[in-house]
Fold this protein.
Amino acid sequence: MQADYVRMLREPRKAAYVAYVEAHEEVNGLLHRAYILLHRDPEITDPNLRAQRLDEAENAFNEAHDRAPAMDHLRAVIVVEGPADVAESAAIADAALHEYKSAVMQWLYATLRDAPDEALKLAAIEARSASRHAYTKLLTDASEAIGEGSVVRLAP
């Protein structure tokens, strides 16, 4: 009987965690696409190809930006489902993803103005690393909370 109760509590949590993680991955993937295109920009000498790639980077960023607000609801569900350490990890992962998005935005707009800045590139690199670290921590905490041990600890 107690096993059924634990399973009943675990399933909504698991669903909430999976929904948030999937949304996080989608936004991160779009930001990463913009990041890669920006990273390769100095290598492009053809002005038409450069314009096309910068358009692709801007479109990927805009799509990430448009999808990010939906994550607020998903994170709120995690806060309701708990436990507190997973809710905190989700908030930290969300904030880190926001910082990554902001860093990519600043780098993108500087590049679009033909004023690329190495400091902005480095800030995006650091923000990406911090976001991935926070995301990995969330995965670990969520896995431990649902008690399935389904996530192998990854190196930051």
